[in-house]
From TrEMBL:
It comes from Ferroplasma acidiphilum. This is ABC transporter permease subunit. SUPFAM superfamilies: MetI-like. It comes from the Archaea. Keywords: Membrane, Transmembrane, Transmembrane helix, Transport. CDD domains: TM_PBP2 (cd06261). GO terms for cellular component: plasma membrane. It is found in: Cell membrane; Membrane. The chain crosses the membrane at residues 7-33, 45-70, 77-96, 183-204, 277-299, 324-346, 393-412, 440-461, 500-520. It holds the Pfam family BPD_transp_1.
Amino acid sequence: MDAIILIILAVLATAGRVIGLILLSILTGWFLAYASIKSKFFENIYIILIEVFESVPVITFFPVVLVIFITRVGGPLGVELAADFLVFTAVVWNIWMGEYQAFKTVPREMVEVVENSRFGLFSRLRYLYIPFSVPRITANLFPSVSDGFFYIPVSEVFEVGVHTYQTFGIGSVLDTFVASAQLFNIEMALLILGIVIVAIVIVLREFSKYAVGRYTLDTDAPVMKRGRLNLRETARVFAALSKNPLTRLARYYKYREGDKHEQTYEKKEKKQKRYKYIYASIGIIILIALLYGVVSLIISVKPSEWSILFNKTPFLLTGLGFDYVRVGSILLVSMVIAIFLGYYLAVNKRAEKYWIPIIQSLSAYPAPIYFPFLFILTEPFMLSLFGGFTNELYVLSLGFVSTFYYVFYSFWMGVKAMPSEYWEITKNLKLGYFKKMRKVIIPSTFPYLISGISSTINSAWGGLMIGEYWPNIYGTHSLSVHTGLMKTIDIATANGDLTLAAWGSLIFGIIVAIYSVLFTRKMMDLAQKKYVAEEGVYSA
């Protein structure tokens, strides 16, 4: 009984840690996203940082965790802050990216309303940007919860060199049970964890319905025939219109229109420039801090060590090339599943009712906990079938389960959030499945897709980080690939070679920064110019 109580408390502590850090991510993301759309300079730095840190797996933050929290803070508080930081880095980036992309694609007509109404910062956030971002946040809540639980085993219990650190939670409790071979307690822990995950999934599913119904920009008010007044239908019309964000803004604008103290154009321009300077200054401070950290790192490394690191750079780049092939394969499979299954579930309520909780439960269940059991059960069969390629398939599978849900949930929520007028067009024109996808569905969900694709690519590295080098995954069995940058960083971290691990992470971060400028930023600019589905409602 004492073990059961311990398991329940540990699961609740872990769930509270994950949910609390997700809420913190949402709150901070609103202000950062607003600052990014107001300053191009801040936006460039912000997007690059998100892309880099989302791509860099949680495990590579261990050197930072060791220095900042374990060494300088120390004690139980330092370990708890370290665990919270590691979980935070697992759940925050896709939420911040989703909020930024939502703010970036707010229809211009709605932005003009809040600007002409002279809204302040908090009023703009309250009446426009936050409501418009809720569906995008909802789409990212599912993968964030999944990621939070996925990385619990390596966040609540982590090793750097010969030292092991842990804080209270289901990850540390399970680690204790596994070390002492308490099979019954392991099964009970997995069962109770599954029950809590299912409960969270049900709550998220109900919230997603509420978010889509209340905060999606739509004009699905019933159309009435001309004739005598029908009070029932009139009530339905006003009920539908009252939920429209633009209608609420219009009411506020009407109230403010009578304000005698109108602001001149020159004052508005001056105020906007002042805000741009503030946001640019924040961006410069962040850039200076990063450059200071880089310079400090360079100075602290001896010339002889730099020679060793430069000699190893071609090997690291080769490993990175192999890893990008793996990430591309994972993305391709994830995209196919997202587009076909995501669309099917979005338009079939009955199937959605059962399959979304199942998919969410499976994706939120920490793969590092159950994957060793699957490995030992299937390894003989897989070896007989695929031979030397077996380990690659295991690593790709681990990478897939760690990231496929990003693009899946983004596309699924994007389809659900499509304005009803677009569905009417597809019905009236009697478009076939593939033509409807090409002409309407994919263009309408393009901002959601870019968000999901970006997070899928960036988060696949976490699964690769765990799978490419997993010694003693089960008993004497190990999982390892021949070549990969994540494997090299894993081995360097396990051996306490933090210099090589940091150098590999730096090279990786530079490549990701280039990718963020060439791909993510350009795709979001394209989505803002051509693929904001809500603007089509106004154009019509």
